[in-house]
Amino acid sequence: MPTSKVPDCAACGQACCRYVATEIDRPTCKRDYDNIRWYLRHANVFVFRDHDGKWYLEFETRCEALGEDGFCTAYETRPKICREHGHAAEGCEFHSGHPPHDVRFETAEAFERWLDARGVDWRWARL
């Protein structure tokens, strides 16, 4: 029986099977910054920018097909995105020698500090 658990995957705890990320527009205005602050106020939701400058909304959530033993229980019928995901030798982002993201935000406060450090005008005027 084929398995998705290989030594490289076991080493990182099957990291790619424990989150979902979708690309979002690069923030450029107060509304964008405010939306990111809102995302980050939700449990298990993060925002990151990859090394190519693309921004992502990340949901920390375990794949329902990941067995307790670390094996994929749907290996033969797994989605194409899983089939195309590389292992360490093929360029898996978790085994590249550097974090898979350029910057990652876990809280709204961390994002606000990052904006402030860059002199970004993100605050709405108080009424």
Describe the structure.
This protein has a four-stranded antiparallel sheet with strand order 1-3-2-4. The chain has a domain at 7-27 and 43-104. The chain has 127 residues and is an alpha+beta fold. Strand 2 and strand 3 form a beta hairpin. The model is unreliable at 1-5 (pLDDT under 50). It is 24% helix and 16% strand. The radius of gyration is 17 Å and the shape is elongated.
Give a short synopsis of this structure.
The protein is of the alpha+beta class and 127 residues long. It has helices spanning 7-12, 30-39, 80-84, 108-117; strands at residues 19-24, 45-49, 55-60, 103-105.
Please trace the helix and strand order, writing H or E for each element. HEHEEHEH
User: What distance separates the N and C termini?
Assistant: 64 Å
Q: How does the overall form come out from the CA principal axes?
A: elongated
Overall pLDDT confidence:
85
**Strand ordering within the main sheet:** 1-3-2-4
Structural class label: alpha+beta
Beta content comes to 15-25%
Helix content: 10-25%
Largest sheet: 4 strands, antiparallel
User: What does the radius of gyration come to?
Assistant: 17 Å
Q: Uncertain segments of ≥5 residues (pLDDT<50)?
A: 1-5
Total beta-strand segments: 4
Helical stretch tally: 4
